[in-house]
Specification:
globular; five-stranded mixed β-sheet; mainly beta; six-stranded antiparallel β-sheet; about 525 residues; 37 strands
């Protein structure tokens, strides 16, 4: 760190408060000194500036580290990865900085830029300084991996409610909060298998509910749920009892949805989507917030049975006046390892329990029926491919319009790096695909059998991760947001719990991947929350 003079650090400042600080281009030297009660000594800057060799080394280090770190070039905004410690250091005036910000992890460090003498945030590219906007990672939860079949992180006001699984099977609730920094609570331990990441549904001011399985290990048929009454933050779950409910067959995943219309003064009801062998079902549970107890009601509700292993992803299709979901859209598709590759779209009314096929609305299922609907009764939006295979990713239910959108990866042969991220548009009134598919590039290298991923955000825009030349790029609609030589796996845009007018403190959560052998073996994997600049 030649040429850098340490004068303070941010250990006592929450990560997201630091994010707000750095996003404010009007901060001056006086503001920095007042905020951190630390003098930014001009004499230090002047003294260092009198040492040409040190000055040159410092300026060169800034340029070199900015060029080689996980940053974006061109017109895109950059991301600041927050790790163990963030320090700020006086810099030579000729570099254009008052201070530089440095991230330190063990013996590695990155110079990330700093404030100019005019008080604007600046980064260096190729030795030049340029005032730019700033996009930074809001925070990181270490040793935590996400999953895409258990629902998306939720957002309310200044908090993102997420979930993950630790390297040793720790079942985790993880919040990213703009005031306090990350909050993490372990509720249980499950087999080390990233399918066992819990799904989570939060009711702000009342509590939070999580559901998970053991991925059918040795025929395990239990859905495990835990509820914590209170604010809804992760720490509501500390010390709470895990309740188990049999599902009638080997159980995998858990995607919980809150039924706001059934709410009482002290309880909330949840429907959790669970794959049971080759069919998908729902378990209804009631959480009593004052006691944090969970009971089962209504039995096991039956959705669809498939001839081969299939996945379902759910998304909001309709809401009440407050933004509580009243209908959910469902996209269903097969494991890419099986022969079949058709994709189906359904809609479930959370009030009536009636599900129907969007391509053939006369095909319905009352989910209280004794038996599931057979997939042979459904009409595929995307039929089986003549050659190659396909992975289903997500569904956007139009935001009130008749145009729903599907997201898949299309492979010309077996699963591999040539798979193309593809968006399809379905006219649900006229029951047909319309327009030409949009594509977002080849996936690139997979993590064992899994692509890095893509997903719709709350506005129907596509976040996607592509790998090329050992660099993983997270983009929004083709515009790069973050690049990393470390892997990124599973892109999970945050979804609002209720109607809100402000912007979320985090746009997307993803896995920061050091090593991933398969879904039961990984290490140096972290849960990364990212906010994109305007």
């Amino acid at each position: 760190m030649t040429g850098l003079v340490p004068i303070g650090d941010f250990e006592g400042v929450p990560d997201m408060m630091l994010a707000d600080l750095l996003r404010n281009p009007s901060l001056s030297r006086d503001t920095l000194m007042a905020l951190f009660s630390t003098d930014v000594p001009a004499i230090v800057i002047e003294t260092v500036s009198q040492l040409p060799a040190v000055e040159a080394a410092a300026a060169g280090a800034v340029a070199a580290k900015l060029a080689s770190a996980d940053v974006i070039v061109g017109t895109d905004k950059r991301v600041l990865p927050l790790f163990t410690k963030t320090g700020w250091y006086a810099m030579p005036e000729s570099t254009g900085y008052i201070v530089a910000f440095v991230v330190v992890e063990q013996r590695d460090w990155w110079i990330l830029g700093g404030f100019t003498l005019e008080g604007t945030w600046s980064v260096a590219r190729g030795g030049d300084s340029a005032a730019v906007g700033l996009s930074i990672t809001a925070s990181m939860v270490r040793d935590a991996i996400p999953e895409w079949w258990v629902g998306l992180p939720q957002w309310y006001l200044d908090t993102i409610y997420a979930s993950a699984l630790g390297r040793k099977g720790e079942v985790l609730a993880a919040d990213f909060n703009a005031r306090t920094g990350p909050i993490v609570a372990q509720v249980a331990t499950a087999p080390v298998d990233d399918h066992n990441v819990p799904g989570r549904s939060t009711v702000p001011g009342r509590g939070t509910f999580m559901a998970y399985t053991h991925h059918g290990l040795n025929g395990d048929n239990l859905l495990r749920v835990v509820a914590g009454g209170g604010s809804g933050r992760a720490d509501c779950l500390t010390g709470k009892t895990v309740f188990s409910f049999p599902m009638g067959g080997a159980a995998s995943y858990g995607q919980p949805w809150n039924l706001a219309h059934t709410r009482t003064a002290t309880t909330d009801t949840f429907w959790t989507f669970v794959r049971v062998a080759l069919k998908w079902c729902i378990r209804e549970n009631v959480a009593d917030w004052p006691t944090s107890t969970v009971t089962a009601t209504g039995g096991i509700k039956q959705l669809v049975e498939f001839p081969d292993q299939a996945y379902m992803h759910t998304s909001v299709a309709a809401t009440d006046e407050f933004g509580n979901p009243t209908k959910v859209g469902i996209i269903a598709g097969f494991n890419p390892a099986v022969v079949k590759s058709a994709v189906y779209v359904l809609e479930l009314d959370l009030k009536t329990g009636i599900m129907h096929d969007k391509m053939k609305p006369t095909v319905t299922q009352d989910i209280s029926a004794a038996n599931p609907l057979q997939s042979t009764a459904l009409t595929a939006v995307l039929p089986d491919k003549a050659s190659g295979t396909r992975r289903v990713l997500g569904l956007y239910c139009g935001g009130g319009s008749k145009l729903w959108k599907l997201l898949t990866i299309e492979y010309s042969g077996a699963v591999g790096p040539d798979g193309v991220i593809t968006e399809w548009t379905l006219d649900v009134d006229n029951l047909q695909l319309v327009g030409s598919p949009r594509t977002f590039g080849a996936t690139g290298r997979h993590f064992e059998r899994y692509p890095a991923g893509a997903q719709f955000d709350r506005d129907g825009k596509v976040w996607h991760i592509n790998e090329s030349g050992n660099v993983y790029t997270l983009s929004l609609e083709g515009v790069a947001v973050r690049k990393s030589s470390r892997g990124m796996l599973r892109v999970l845009p945050v979804m609002p719990i209720l109607k809100q007018t402000a912007e979320p403190p985090v746009d997307v959560v993803t896995g920061d991947i050091g090593s991933y052998t398969d879904y039961t073996a990984w290490s140096d994997v972290n849960l990364l929350a990212i906010k994109k600049g305007a």
